[in-house]
Amino acid sequence: MSSIKLAVVWILVLVPLTWGVVKSVEKSLPLFERSSAETQR
Amino acid sequence: MSMLSRAATVAPPGFNRWLVPPSAIAVHMCIGQVYGFSVFKVPLSQALGISAPIEGDWSVADIGVAYSIALAMLGLSAAIFGKWVERSGPRLTMIAAAICFCGGLALFALAVKLHALWLLYAGYGVLGGIGLGLGYIAPVSTLVKWFPDRPGMATGMAIMGFGGGALIGAPLAQELMKHFSSATSVGASQALLVMAGLYACWMLLGAIIVRVPADDWKPAGWQPKTTAKRLVTDASVSADQAWKTPQFWLLWLVLCLNVTAGIGILGQASPMIQDMFKVSPGAAAGFVGLLSISNMAGRFLWSSASDLTGRKGVYCIYFILGAALYWAVPWTQRSGNLLLFVVTTAVIISMYGGGFATVPAYLRDLFGTYQVGAIHGRLITAWSAAALIGPTLVDRISEAQKNAGVPAEQTYNFTLHLMAGLLLVGLICNLLVRPVHTRHHL
């Protein structure tokens, strides 16, 4: 029971944090596109 | 009321201490929303005009005052209520933090609905700010007590949640405002109400899970090192006594200077990369997102590393490496290497986050665990001071450089060199930290 409770509470905090990280990575993609365009030039 | 008391939260034998970090992270990732406050500025500056500001709309600067009040209240409330937090225990404090912070968000929503600026300041600024202070210190001091073997990692986990709060709060607010916006509303007040409800659920979840260890509890198989490090004490210093010591004020300066220097980049990140590398506003926003991830990761990684290097050692790394990297940033611009610029600034910001996360463990080393939450609360006033000094300093200098005709891509050079200097002053303060004299011990 303790293991399930542990897994559930960690999932409850890690899901929103992961969502936030994914959103930030998505937002940062234009920066990488510009960097790779520069490298190709 | 008894189930909220400190005594009711003492963990039974066999309690798994790894249940406590999610509780701390749950609270911190909610109150970390304050870092994402800026996403409300533009929509609220046209709350009446909807598509563009009209007469009677709040200015962006007016709205920004609420953020400054909230940060000032964070420091003040942490300092004032620190001893109450230690006495009352984490559960009652987390519930009080949830009421204040989520109540502040609800009043913010009402302020938008009524278009009452004073209510925004009183609600989100004052009440929400008190929630920030209470919610910031309670989980940290609890975790320090649960992880005497790895205090740096423990505080890093909680404070990483605060950094992560910006990553959640900003896009969540944007998605909700987009969902609720209409021809007659920018959707901010509805978005804020939903956020208040969601954050209340997560903060209360944290309050339900949290436990404090029994006084004689130790991790299974762990014994305090007999060859103790010089700066790590097993004695106790009260909060009232701690701030009579030079160590407290040296750490106050260490935190203040580290934060001031970090804000030098964080507060200017978007215009800086646009001026220095001529990138688009979209790419600049991506750079800010990347720095936020780096800020969050640095809180956990650097603070965990401090369990190996010692707290004084890791701050020496922040200050020496930080000063060298600040000095190198203008060079990355001259060499035209955008990737190197991004990596350099990301490492700088990771150490800014690391500075926040390591300081509670540093306090625990010097003053013991007895009232570490209250001492931490008083030290956080350094953050409030830096939040006022840093942006003002950077804005004024950049403005003066532009007015003096310095080319746009070079207007940040002086500021960056100044920040490197501030970090070297911080290094000296850190090197001056010695063990607390036994006359201050209880």
Account of the 3D structure:
The complex is a heterodimer of chains A (41) and B (442). By secondary structure, chain A is mainly α. Chain A is built from one helix and no strands. The longest helix of chain A is centred in the middle third of the chain and has 39 residues, at 2-40. Chain B is mostly helical. Chain B has two domains: 2-209, Growth Hormone, Chain: A, CATH 1.20.1250; 239-440, Growth Hormone, Chain: A. Chain B is built from 16 helices and no strands. In chain B, helix 3 packs antiparallel against helix 15, helix 6 (151-180) packs antiparallel against helix 7 and helix 12 (311-334) runs antiparallel to helix 13. The mean pLDDT of chain B is 90.
Q: What is the total tally of β strands of chain A?
A: 0
**Which word captures the global form of chain A?**
rod-shaped
CATH topology of the largest domain in chain B: Growth Hormone, Chain: A
Largest interface: A-B, 25 and 34 residues
Structural shape of chain B: globular
**Fraction in beta strands of chain A:** under 5%
How many strand units of chain B?
0
- Gyration radius from CA atoms of chain A, angstroms: 18 Å
Helix content of chain A: over 70%
Q: Helix fraction of chain B?
A: over 70%
In the CATH hierarchy, what is the superfamily of the largest domain in chain B? MFS general substrate transporter like domains
* Secondary structure tally, helices of chain B: 16
Order of helices and strands of chain A: H
Low-confidence stretches of chain A: none
